[in-house]
Amino acid sequence: MPTATPIDASADQLAAVTYNSDGLVAAIVQEHGTKDILMMAWMNADTLAETLESGRTVFWSRSRQERWAKGDTSGDRQWVREAYYDCDGDTLLFVVEQEGAGACHTGAKTCFYRSFGSGEPT
Amino acid sequence: MPTATPIDASADQLAAVTYNSDGLVAAIVQEHGTKDILMMAWMNADTLAETLESGRTVFWSRSRQERWAKGDTSGDRQWVREAYYDCDGDTLLFVVEQEGAGACHTGAKTCFYRSFGSGEPT
Lengths: 122, 122
Known about the structure:
The structure is a homodimer. The two termini of chain A are 27 Å apart. By secondary structure, the first copy, chain A, is mainly beta. Chain A has helices at residues 11-15, 45-54; strands spanning 25-31, 37-43, 58-61, 66-69, 78-85, 91-98, 114-115. Chain A is built from two helices and seven strands. Chain A has a four-stranded mixed β-sheet with strand order 2-1-6-5. In chain A, strands 3-4 form a two-stranded antiparallel ribbon. Chain A is 12% helix and 33% strand. Chain A is globular, with a radius of gyration of 14 Å. Chain A binds chain B through residues 7-9, 13-14, 16, 26, 28, 30, 34-37, 39-40, 52, 82-88, 91, 93, 104-106, 108, 111-119, 121-122, and chain B through 7-9, 13-14, 16, 26, 28, 30, 34-37, 39-40, 52, 82-88, 91, 93, 104-106, 108, 111-119, 121-122. Strand 7 of chain A pairs antiparallel with strand 5 (78-85) of chain B.
């Protein structure tokens, strides 16, 4: 089983994160190694802190208005290996080891399994 | 110079895209080849259509409330090679050839040049 690697973010780093009017910041999740983009979800300040401290991705569900820790239901947990924030602080990037079948609730490895155009999805 | 490769999206594919209350959808941009994540920005239905038809990324600026075609000012254009939409249609993924120095307005290759923790940024 992958192990948790907490990230000790500085106060300055956390202060650089900007939240939208709902108190949320977008979080992209990329698979370590393959660099496949697995999913995008949202965090608030609390779930960002929990993600960094616990070493597992934890999000905020806009539809359910509640915290959710990725994999608590499915077992498909995501173990954070690297975490970044972008130039204007309103998007985060987590590089993770994905446990289980994948990141998508459909059972697909990635949520981005459908492509525009006539090309085959990856 | 890279060439434009328009993507002929079907009506069903475009109808699967869902927009937020501002009429916007999040668009992740990943570099073809390296699979580095370059940036995240927003599109409305018009700039998504223009992106697919022109083969270059075109976004909607929330701060300026106007259309912007990536690279029109900087020359750092992005040429779309693959385009995906996620399981619930509210996030897009564009795999692009990045022209010029990079995607970030700071001059960095990627907007995600700062990491949480004491690790070195990539």
